[in-house]
Amino acid sequence: MIDSNTQVTSTLLYLDDVSVSFDGFKAINGLSLAIEPGEMRAIIGPNGAGKTTMMDIITGKTRPDTGDVLFEGQMDLTQHDETEIAQAGIGRKFQKPTVFESQTVRENLELALSGNRGVWASLFYRESEADAARIEEILQTVRLQQRANELASDLSHGQKQWLEIGMLLAQDPKLLLVDEPVAGMTDAETVETAKLLREISKTHSVIVVEHDMGFIRDLDVKVTVLAEGSVLAEGSLDHVSAHPDVIESYLGR
Amino acid sequence: MISAFLFRGLAGRIAWVAAFIALLGILVPLSNLMLPSDHALYVPDYIVSLFGKYLTYALLAMALDLVWGYCGILSLGHGAFFALGGYAMGMYLMRQIGSRGVYGDPILPDFMVFLNWKELPWYWYGFDQFWFAAIMVLAIPGLLAFVFGWFAFRSRVTGVYLSIITQAMTYALLLAFFRNDMGFGGNNGLTDFKDILGYTLQNPATRAGLFAAAAFALSLALVISSAIVRSKFGKVLLATRDAESRARFLGYRVEHVKLFVFTLSAMMAGIAGALYVPLVGIINPGEFAPANSIEVVIWAAVGGRGTLIGPIIGAITVNLGKSWFTAQFPEYWLFVLGGLFVAVTVFMPKGMLGTLSSFSDKVKSLKPAPKPSQTEAGEMRKEGEAS
To answer: What domains, with CATH codes, occur in chain A?
Structure first.
């Protein structure tokens, strides 16, 4: 009893028996998941397994029908909206790279930079040296210094993905949700992205959803396999890929 | 802090345009009042009134641009905020008539005497004072926009649905103001004004003063709007326009962003309406007509949305065209207006100003200059080889 209590409070993100259905279709079905502080977790699963819906629930876009979603052991995420959850320290990268296309790379990062998000604060905001240095540092991390003053719409697909990861870094959340970061990337870019995420995971907790098995192998972290809205298997990549249920759900019956 | 904020608004061509408009506000009245009528630079009275009216339209179009061009809120109800500001000013002007009305009642406006009303309705109290009316010019459109926006934005009504309910809002107000028992003069509205702040409205000097007020208001509103769109808040506005849910996931309270800019824009529209009414001498429910609000959208689109200056140019150009056409070929104006909107949408999606700037960009890029994109591509190739 005491054990499970301490477990809850030390866990960064805790989902317990979460279910949600859309028009009778159970997108998430009794899902339980715990992410420790500083952990990087990869989530895989076939199409329709509920990966994106799970992210929607964590970030407040979708409200679950039943179950608990706790952040840092005390914040009930089902009771807050996207803005509050983002301000509490959960950042999200979308499956399709979503950056502010009509603004420059630097402006995108400036918007993401952590700080007061209020109307007055942004009206009278003046960039401090620390902020400018931080943006410069992130530009370097995501390898976009050369393109800092170009419109985000002019970036290549892979660069947009990196810009969005850079925006996540600027936001400096406690937990990063990264949805298919290497979709549409070249092999070289994929390797770079894995490096980048491993770097980020030294200072942040990260959940990565991805299809690309090579990429997951590069990340070298604990893997959770989702299927039909619940956890099918959990463990190292080798462990889960040897699991008979996983083989069946991926290869079909 | 405020001065630093406004100073940022004076960047680039905005400073020139704002200074030019303010200068017009000084020179046109001076020329109208000081020069003899046969002087080459003399501005006749009717031009002062006509262009004064255009300046108030320009302010309305710029206010719309702030919400539409920068925040993506296509309001088809900005005519309502304009009309409400106009009515607030009209109520002040009505009460200035005093016993000079047809029925000679010292308190009640003529239409109330005509309707056999015995006392002034409570909501007409205070409008005999200019300062009170001036506050109401801002407060009433602002409050309506705030309440409307509060419900609409919180419920995440966006896009065409929002446009439709703003149309419904102005249409509902149109119907309400048509009713005699609303107490705003019904069908006829408010008219027969005599003076403003003690100056006779028929006097050319008063008209020149109103022209100057319209020019200064437009100039100041342009600087304030420019300061807003150049601040970090302006970037948040664009972010909300382009990817609303992304802005939410970054932790921005999108509904507050929209509410602020919508309310501010409505207040600017209210000021425009308040300046318009003494210049044209009448305000009636026709100002709430849905078509009026749509016309404002056309001005902004023709001039170039998302530029602040474009809608000013668009409002003046389209209304010049309207004045000319309705005199020469009155029956064709609506076809021309419709055709203009279609043509701009299809051939100049960025409007006059946007097309002009992209043309000048093209001219610039034709000159031989080191192409940054090539050198960068080279560097990236090197990087790729290294890794």
So the answer is: 1-89+175-189+202-252 (3.40.50.300), 96-172 (no CATH)
